[in-house]
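Exam revision sheet. Question 4 asks you to relate a sequence to its structure. Input first:
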Amino acid sequence: MDLQVVLPNESPEMDPGRPAEIAVKAEELGYHTAWLPDHVLPPEEYGSFYGGVFEPLITLSGIAARTSRLRIGTSVLVLPLRDPFSLAKQVATLDRLSGERLTLGLGVGWDRKEFENVGSDFTTRGARTDEAIDLMRALFSGARSFEGRFYGFDGGVFEPRPRGNVRLMVGGISDAALRRVARVADEWQSIEADPEKFAEQVRRLRSFTDRPLRVGTRISWDGADSTAARVKALGEAGAEFVAVWFGEDAGYEDRMAALIG
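Answer key, structure tokens:
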């Protein structure tokens, strides 16, 4: 099972270089992937509830420059808040710059007020997410046109194209999210699931597809012994990766090291 880290990105007062410093240590300790959260314009202050102070894709480009083995990704980027054409360009560029180490983690979002703040339709977020994924994959494949309900182009040239498939992780536990995973994703990430609930979610996901999918979850640090026990139990329940958020950035490296043991 892969042990992963969700980097801190909840405090405007945090030095912007801290995520990269922590990612370097995570690579040294043997963590498999480092994730960053995303919120564009939340209705309340950033903190433990809202992460994403520093834009994740830009921040990950700095992390990519300072690491060599660590995979990087978003957990999760709120796709329907963004223009999918610009996002595809950012993703393809970052994947190339990082040496194909990017996993694009996506979600549909849940905060209606944040959607209103940026002028994005909350009610169509699921349908727009599905179509945006199809659009980005068409762009990555070199397609010269695309026609959809929300997005389309005719005769455009997209570069840089990824050398391989950019890995796609979809987060969420609703049936709609699980069906999206089954249709298009390489990985699925639950959140704060206990082992029994996680195993039930995986059974539900497997009922939608027999495609090979990596499955895992994201949890929060609650002490070395307790977190290690949760990680072990989730692995026994079928998790192929567990991503841990270790709280505020002060002392982050120490807590990562304590979990490794």
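Marking note for examiners. The CA atoms of residues 35 and 174 lie 22 Å apart.
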